[in-house]
């Protein structure tokens, strides 16, 4: 609920907090650059998988699906800040939803004749 | 209560436009009660038909329609809104909130549900009701002639949207609107079960939406999703229906569990035994509820591996359910138990529901299920859990919360007569059906032959149903009599434990003049033990912001209703008109600013103790 309890901190604490914010911010900037590069790299890989004659179609489909999963994780955690504080409910919702949907799809694929 | 002089509104307009969760709760309860009576009437007609062998009270076709509508009405139009009625009437009070998170959406949910409920019942007047069973299995439902099943498909679709947004609303409300100090592990169990139930609604209803959408495409637009002769697959419908259908059972029973967990401690003057185990069991039941749906499909022929996996998962659910049963028993153990009517329902629930649970475990064994499947044994089983569990829970909640919701006490003597007649009638009706099933009587068949030893049990079963009917008349008399000449209810008639009892009965429209500070589980009980008459406020007295009422939700539901009804009769121009109406209302909602209004602190009754 109320996560902003530091509105009455002293000047000293404030500058202290600022430094922490700066460090956290720089760390995040680095994460963003790395993930941006990774995402472009993964996208290139999937294009190569489709274009290349050496890779079979079956494998290419599976491979791209796995890459898509990784991309979705990057998107959610790095760009949509799911890892930040206060996102537990969306996280729970998303993963429970994925779980239910995956169970149903897997069951459907395995059991429907 | 006329301290703040608001201009007097036309009462009908007021009810159509209200966004107050307490009024919406009453609307849900009233609509649910109406459909409960309707579904009960259908049940009585069914039992009259089955009173004697080869009876011809209603024909086979009418019987199919009665049976379909009895199931659909009781699940979707009676139990669901009654559950939502209690969510609305009680949960915001229990968490110390002034309203739900989205009052407008709340009202929209109610009106969509009502539009769907009316649509479902139109068949009675328009040449034939749905007749493919409450499950609406394809291809029976896709090939059923007439418009009956169309009413089923579109009615359920519209009311399903209402339920879904209602569930989302309560998730957000419970996450965001709890009073200061009310951590998750200090929430009353009814709030907990509401929370888990809302999660189940969020994840289960989309499967129904998809199933119904495909059914609609097959019936109205000539697709062949479920037509085996055209390469479709009817088994997909069964999967989709039960992926929704099994969680739906828990959507109904968990709130009932929550009600019992409120009533039993209050009436035993003890705190709930094993609170955290109760919370964990509720969450576990909700979680496991998603991986057992195939137990409804053991005889489809999915193979021994699939059947075994789902059988074991089903049996697992007996564990957390057993934990709950024992916790209720231990709560009563050593308590000063008062047998008020509410508590009678709670105590009567335990043996009844355990019986239903036992037959549930029997049904979860696939080889045995081949014997029980589609027989009266199944009918007995699910009525034991749904009537013995859900309906008893709703009655317990009704007698317990009636004073809070309506400000008047129900008559306890009439209440006890209601309980005993209903309890005896219930067991008379459904206990013999176990044996009818074991003797081979199939469910959903409009008659049976004489000389097969099915007569006595069927006769007893029908007499039991009539007794339940008489019990319901006693309940209605109780409601009418006490609303005319009933005793006014005090704030806290049961010496209860949770926040809703700290405010007046019925609560003022803003619920809490000052948001209460919660210092532990059973917050109000703690304050009472500390010698306080009311909750300690968490904030100074200030102006209270209230949401504006709005006619838009009602109009949106009307638009969808028109669209669906015209689509059934292929009047596409009117159907598009209905959709345009709905979207126009959505547009208005987006562009008009609703600022709400304030109740000024000078206008609040002094002391805010009991709103007098
Ligand atoms: Cu089930």
UniProtKB/TrEMBL annotation, chain A:
<keyword id="KW-0472">Membrane</keyword>
<feature type="transmembrane region" description="Helical">
    <location>
        <begin position="33"/>
        <end position="52"/>
    </location>
</feature>
<keyword id="KW-1133">Transmembrane helix</keyword>
<keyword id="KW-1003">Cell membrane</keyword>
<feature type="transmembrane region" description="Helical">
    <location>
        <begin position="59"/>
        <end position="80"/>
    </location>
</feature>
<feature type="transmembrane region" description="Helical">
    <location>
        <begin position="92"/>
        <end position="112"/>
    </location>
</feature>
<dbReference type="Pfam" id="PF03626">
    <property type="entry name" value="COX4_pro"/>
</dbReference>
<protein>
    <submittedName>
        <fullName>Cytochrome B6</fullName>
    </submittedName>
</protein>
<keyword id="KW-0812">Transmembrane</keyword>
<dbReference type="GO" id="GO:0005886">
    <property type="term" value="C:plasma membrane"/>
</dbReference>
<dbReference type="InterPro" id="IPR005171">
    <property type="entry name" value="Cyt_c_oxidase_su4_prok"/>
</dbReference>
TrEMBL record, chain B:
<feature type="transmembrane region" description="Helical">
    <location>
        <begin position="414"/>
        <end position="436"/>
    </location>
</feature>
<keyword id="KW-0679">Respiratory chain</keyword>
<dbReference type="InterPro" id="IPR014241">
    <property type="entry name" value="Cyt_c_oxidase_su1_bac"/>
</dbReference>
<keyword id="KW-0249">Electron transport</keyword>
<dbReference type="InterPro" id="IPR036927">
    <property type="entry name" value="Cyt_c_oxase-like_su1_sf"/>
</dbReference>
<dbReference type="GO" id="GO:0005886">
    <property type="term" value="C:plasma membrane"/>
</dbReference>
<dbReference type="GO" id="GO:0016491">
    <property type="term" value="F:oxidoreductase activity"/>
</dbReference>
<dbReference type="GO" id="GO:0006119">
    <property type="term" value="P:oxidative phosphorylation"/>
</dbReference>
<dbReference type="InterPro" id="IPR000883">
    <property type="entry name" value="Cyt_C_Oxase_1"/>
</dbReference>
<feature type="transmembrane region" description="Helical">
    <location>
        <begin position="342"/>
        <end position="362"/>
    </location>
</feature>
<keyword id="KW-0349">Heme</keyword>
<keyword id="KW-1003">Cell membrane</keyword>
<dbReference type="InterPro" id="IPR023616">
    <property type="entry name" value="Cyt_c_oxase-like_su1_dom"/>
</dbReference>
<comment type="function">
    <text>Cytochrome c oxidase is the component of the respiratory chain that catalyzes the reduction of oxygen to water. Subunits 1-3 form the functional core of the enzyme complex. CO I is the catalytic subunit of the enzyme. Electrons originating in cytochrome c are transferred via the copper A center of subunit 2 and heme A of subunit 1 to the bimetallic center formed by heme A3 and copper B.</text>
</comment>
<keyword id="KW-0186">Copper</keyword>
<feature type="transmembrane region" description="Helical">
    <location>
        <begin position="72"/>
        <end position="96"/>
    </location>
</feature>
<keyword id="KW-0812">Transmembrane</keyword>
<feature type="transmembrane region" description="Helical">
    <location>
        <begin position="272"/>
        <end position="293"/>
    </location>
</feature>
<feature type="transmembrane region" description="Helical">
    <location>
        <begin position="305"/>
        <end position="330"/>
    </location>
</feature>
<dbReference type="GO" id="GO:0022904">
    <property type="term" value="P:respiratory electron transport chain"/>
</dbReference>
<feature type="transmembrane region" description="Helical">
    <location>
        <begin position="382"/>
        <end position="402"/>
    </location>
</feature>
<comment type="pathway">
    <text>Energy metabolism; oxidative phosphorylation.</text>
</comment>
